[in-house]
Design goal:
Shape: globular
Structural class: alpha/beta
Number of strands: 17
Largest sheet: 9 strands, mixed
Radius of gyration: 24 Å
Distance between the termini: 26 Å
Strand content: 5-15%
Strand order of the largest sheet: 3-4-5-2-1-6-7-8-9
Number of helices: 19
Length: about 550
């Protein structure tokens, strides 16, 4: 215990991404779990949605002996749960809940939410109902687990809800199980993401925006409402960076109580010899796919530059990355081949059969396939942002082009049909990663990149970029492992030029300079391990438990 901090006896965390790999929150939870499991073995439980139905979930190992006395009581109460372990380092206990029975009570649930907390669910659409029914079910599960198994022995119990999708459960617990201290973590505000994604300037006008008004204008009233009311009612409201902290204060009218930066677990990274082997295999696979698709031989010393993450064309800076590649392509002084990989899951239909056939043949090709850019067919090829921009730039991977682009619009889960390698393995094959985000509350992709010894480029609008600058005490450079480019609402062209210059600078580096950058990237990642960042979580637990005590003693 540090400075008389109150530590939890038991932690329950709820997220749509528990045993359900979708995006960055999965990485947050799955990499942090081991640190908490070591500190308090099997006194942390994750609750997620049982969305796999009767199909086997490779991320979940059911175990009927875990929490067996409670699970029988839960079944008697009508709760449909499966208990087991999450197949990640640390293997924490996970409870998957079937939330479908609660749709029949949807109007009643929303009515109570309005009466108790003033949450407007009237304008709900899309995934709001699905997320809310899961969150309500998670609240019921938490209440049942606490009453039957925890209350007698665990005085300090924490319930942490991640993102707006779990807000309803946090509010339910706040009312019905006041003994539990509640934490809500927003990893990106709904309204902030919407403002940025709708091409409105977010940062220069942040002070002038009214969150409620903008939510109505952008048709996200219900998500904004539940997120805002949860931030105001839980015991501890948190977010992942100072960047998003300012956003919360302005758009949710509630400053974060504690900032929880996202760390990484080193056990995900292979040891040096194994990593070198994986890197060689990944580079060969990428070059092999490029040859089969484009009909050109990719040189052994080609610079492999990649971007990845959620397919938010502007927010993630995919647009400015392609702009930079186009400018490099037009640079006659570029004397090294660049293979750029854009890995952002889109509306994928299937892997290309013609590409699969070529890859299976084992041959080398000197003629391109039709559409020699994309590795998987999309449902709507004519309205894809990446393909549209590359067409606008007249970038078609001609043999004479020094810069070639490989568009991979699918999740790299080792079963994509083309690469058939996990994302982290292919990440290891990159020489340089580029994540020039406009809207990025934290930025797991650059952190993952440097953890795997791959230097990266990011911006000052990402939480990670701000942290890297803070570590340096000045603007971080490629020599520090992560180049942080200053970005604002209006300097798109300057950012594109900075990316172009950085790629060309890296392409001119000799082996010794590249090795120094890779070592610096790895060293920087060691400062962002969960063993360093977990202290912020203990601060949040202490804050929440003290607030709970104040509530109960009123």
């Amino acid at each position: 215990m540090i400075n008389n901090q109150i530590r939890p006896d038991f932690i329950i965390e709820s997220s749509w991404e528990v045993c359900n790999k979708i995006g960055g929150i999965y990485t947050v939870l799955s990499t942090r779990a081991k640190t908490l499991q070591v500190a308090m073995p099997d006194h942390i439980v994750f609750i997620g949605p049982d969305v796999w139905g009767y199909k086997e979930n490779p991320l979940f190992k059911e175990d009927g002996l875990l929490l067996s006395s409670w699970s029988q009581a839960a079944l008697a109460e009508g709760l449909r749960v499966r208990v087991g372990r999450w197949a990640i380092p640390g293997e924490p206990i996970a409870i998957l809940v079937d939330f479908t029975p609660y749709y029949a009570r949807k109007n009643e649930i929303y009515g109570c939410l309005w009466n108790d907390f003033g949450v407007d669910s009237l304008h709900a659409y899309g995934d709001y109902d699905e997320a809310s029914m899961f969150s309500f079910a998670a609240g019921l599960v938490t209440e049942s687990l606490y009453r039957h198994q925890l209350a007698a022995d665990c005085h300090n119990v924490i319930y942490q809800a991640h993102e707006w999708m779990t807000c309803l459960g946090a509010l339910y617990i706040h009312k019905h199980v006041p003994e539990i201290a509640t934490i809500f973590t927003t990893h990106a505000t709904t309204i902030g993401r919407s403002i940025a994604g709708n091409n409105k300037p977010l940062y220069d006008y942040l002070f002038a925006y009214n969150g409620n008004q903008m939510a109505e204008e952008l048709n996200v009233q219900s998500k904004h409402s539940i997120e805002r009311q949860t931030a105001h009612n839980v015991d501890c409201f948190t977010t992942v960076s100072e960047v998003t902290g300012r956003e919360c204060a302005e758009l949710l009218d509630k400053p974060a109580d504690v900032i929880l930066p996202n760390g990484f677990e080193d056990s995900f990274v292979p040891k040096a010899q194994a990593l070198a082997k994986i890197r060689r295999e990944a580079r060969e696979r990428v070059k092999r796919v490029a040859n089969a698709l484009m009909g050109v031989r990719i040189s052994d010393d080609a610079l492999i530059v990649a971007t990845s993450g959620r397919y938010e064309f502007k927010n993630k800076g995919i647009d400015v990355f392609l702009e930079a590649l186009n400018r490099s392509l037009r640079n006659v002084s570029l004397d090294r081949e660049v293979l750029a990989v854009v890995d952002v899951p889109g509306w994928v239909a299937c892997p290309r059969a013609d590409l699969q056939e070529r890859l299976a043949s084992g041959l080398t090709f000197d003629t391109p396939l039709e559409h020699p850019i994309v590795t998987h067919w999309l449902h709507d090829m004519t309205n894809d942002h990446c393909l549209d921009m590359l067409k606008h730039f007249n970038m078609f991977n001609r043999p004479e082009d020094k810069v070639k682009v490989l568009f991979v619009p699918c999740y790299l889960d080792a079963n994509d049909g083309i690469f058939n390698m996990p994302y982290y393995d292919l990440l290891s094959g990159n020489d340089l990663s580029v994540y020039p985000s406009y809207y990025e509350p934290w930025g797991y992709t650059p952190l993952e990149s440097i953890a795997f010894h791959v230097p990266c480029i990011t911006t000052s609008l990402s939480g990670f970029g701000c942290w890297a600058n803070e570590v340096k005490g000045a603007q971080s450079t490629l020599g520090d492992g992560a180049l942080v480019i200053p970005r604002n609402d209006y300097n798109y062209s300057e950012v594109a030029d900075s990316i172009k210059d950085a790629i060309e600078q890296f392409a001119r580096m000799d082996d010794k300079e590249v090795d120094a950058c890779r070592k610096a990237a790895r060293a920087l990642s060691q400062k962002a391990l969960w063993s360093k960042f977990i202290t912020a979580y203990y601060e949040a637990y202490d804050f929440a438990l003290r607030r709970r005590d104040l509530r109960l003693n009123k």
